[in-house]
Structure formats: structure tokens, C-alpha cells
Amino acid sequence: MPASNLNPAANAAQTITVELPQNPYNISIANGNLATIGTAMQNPQLKLGRKVLVVSNPTIFKHYGQIVVAAIEAAGFSVNSCILPAGERYKTPASIQKIHDAALEMRLERSSTMVALGGGVIGDMTGFAAATWLRGINVIQVPTSLLAMVDSSIGGKTGVNHPKGKNLIGAFHQPKLVVIDPTVLKTLPAREFRAGMAEVIKYGVNWDKALFEHMEAAKRLDQLRYVSEALLNTIITHSCQAKAVVVAKDEKESGLREILNYGHTIGHAVESLTGYRVVNHGEGVGIGMVAAGEIAVEMGWWSREECDRQNILIEKCHLPTRLPAIIDISAVVPKLQTDKKVKAGKVRFVLPKQIGTVAVTDQVTPEIIQPVLQQLASA
Q: pLDDT at residue 66 above 70?
């Protein structure tokens, strides 16, 4: 079902199924979901063993760790926790070893479960640790950032960064369940909320025109307090449905799923070239979407009018639309060659054709890219 067919009520609980042939799973969206996660884990169809390792970071665990651990323990599970430093720069093999050390100490078995309580970084690392412990154990994603709720917690992409590139080390490992509790966004910093909105705009451009128009109609999108509960629910459910449909059609990114990389090609390069310290992932995607849009206009794929609509929406979310001043523009094109989406030595770009429709091409040359980067260079 296309995401635009959803019309959820503001407070209604939603269940979206990722219809994979081998490992289908549900995305549960409801206020108060954290307190009932233990009950959800008791579902016999999940076949979860009694040992559970909750992986989080200090800030998130302080806010929500006690609620989640208590809920899981009340359901009869034995729970330990592993707390990792927050931030993209800690998304490394060294952090995976810490999770593995905790798994060994707890004697996790093949029926055991890791629970990722946090944003995209925690979700990616926990998923990868689960994929590689005993050749694969259960993982449940409990995203606490908007970006993780609408994107990274769904679809089974897991991994860590290599010093030379983002997400170069990883595995596909689908979760058993995704548990989304929108109320946790109340403690999310405004910058992280804006980062999540970049991924939502991505869905609007690459898949769901109705979602794009919902956001266009909003007066402000830069902070949660300006977003109505009805609009927030639309944002989350439409985005999750879009991701679920695409992943179900192409689990391991051999075709259609590539469209989910819209804005990520140059976005990942910007993150890497700034050492994962200057821009966060969503900000990188925002810059990447502006660049991809301008490239599409330059190549005659997209109208100037629709490109401007996209850029205005990105600016409405107070996301950056210019390259950071510290970036050496001449380093961007070579960095693209380390992107995991390169095929036969050619960089693959996702480019818009109209709002709601994109296509993938390997025909974007450095001669096209370089002037766009110059255009986006910070003054």
C-alpha cells in the first residue's frame, strides 16, 4: 500500500508490517509503547529467549532505561545493559567489541535478544553486534530519535564506519520488532529533531508526494513544539510505511531500495570529510538533497520550480543548504569513490524527476558535480 493512502488519527496506535518473505516483522507506533515493550516481547511468534541485553547511550538510558528495563523484566526476561558513548564518532568496531564483551559476560545464546534503545548510531551498532554474535541473534529496535524512527530502525541495515568512509562495515540483519513511542521525542534536542526531518523530506521527494505537501502546508517544522500531534503522526506513519514497502520489495538494495539513498551520496561524503563532528547525518542528507536537486536541474531531469520547493522545505526545517566552510571542495569527488553504492567504479546518484519520483543513474560526471559544489560552498 502506498504511504499516501495512510490517514492515521492523531492518537491512534498503528501497526505497519514489513512484508519480507522470510522474516516479516511489525513496526508498532503508539504513545506509551516503552512501558509495554515487555508484553510485546512475550508474543510467542517472536520466539525470544529469556536473556536480553539492552544497548543504549548515557543520555537516553538516563531518560528511558529504567522504564524499558522494568517493562522487560516484568515480562519475565533477564536483563543486562551495555552503555556506549553518544555520537557518530563512536560508531566504530571498538564499540562493537564492547557490545560483544557484554554479550559474553551475560552468556547470550542464539535465542537471546539485543534491544537497541537509542538513535540511529545505537540502532546500527546494536544491529551489527546482534548480526555477528553467534552468527546472528535477535534484535529489537526501540528508536528514540525522529531519524531512527522514520528510517534507520527499519530495514535491517546495520554497521559501523571505517575511517575512510561511512557504513563501509556492516551486514543486513532484520529486527524481530520495531517499537516506536513518539512521546520520547519530547526530550530530543531540536537539532536532532531537524536531522530527522531531513529523512522525512527524503521520503516526500522520492516516494510520497502527499507527505511532501503536508509538510509544505505547515507553518514551522524546525522544532517539535511547532508540529501538531496529527502532523507528527502523519510524518512518522507515512515515512515508516514508505520504508516498509520499499524494503519488502528489495530487502538487500539490489534495485528499488537504492532510492532510499536520495541525498546520501554527497551527504555521506560531507559527514566523512568533516570527521563526523561538524554536521550530523540529517544535516549531511539535507546538504546532499540540495546538491542532488541542483544536479538534476543541471541535467534536465527536474524543473527549477520543484527544486526550489524542495530547498524551501529544507530551509523551513532549519537544515543547512550549504557546504561547511571547512570542507575542501576538491576532496568531495574523490571521496565519492569510497561510497558503498559505487558499482563498476561509477558513483550512483539518486536524482528527482518530479516530487514523489526519483531515478538512479551512474551518469553524473565530475564535470557536473564540481560546479554544483562551488555553488553550494559557504561564503
A: yes
pLDDT tens-place string over residues 93-150 = 999 999 999 999 999 999 999 999 999 999 999 999 999 999 999 999 999 999 999 9
CA–CA gap between residue 103 and residue 117 (Å, rounded): 16
Is 206 assigned a catalytic role? no
Q: Is the pTM of this model over 0.90?
A: yes
The mean predicted confidence, pLDDT, of the chain is 94
- Taking the C-alpha atoms of residue 203 and residue 151, their distance in angstroms, rounded to an integer, is 10
Residue 159 has pLDDT above 90, yes or no: yes
Q: In the beta sheet, which residues pair with residue 25?
A: 18
Task: Measure the CA–CA gap between 6 and 11, rounded to whole angstroms.
Answer: 14
Sign, Cα dihedral of 307, 319, 159, 163: positive
Catalytic residue flag (residue 100): no
What CATH superfamily is the domain 190-376?
Dehydroquinate synthase-like - alpha domain (1.20.1090.10)
Catalytic residue status for 318: no
The one-letter amino acid code at 335 reads K
* Structural fold of domain 3-187: Rossmann fold (3.40.50)
Domain ranges within the chain, ordered by starting residue: 3-187, 190-376
Q: Give the integer Cα–Cα distance in Å for 332 and 267.
A: 10
Q: Binding residue per annotation — 281? A: yes
The predicted model gives 362-366 an average pLDDT of: 94
Is 144 part of any known ligand binding site?
A: yes
Give the Cα separation of 39 and 35 in Å (integer): 9
Residue tagged active-site, from 7, 47, 107, 135: 135
Has 165 been labeled as part of a binding site?
no
- The question of whether 253 is a catalytic residue gets the answer yes
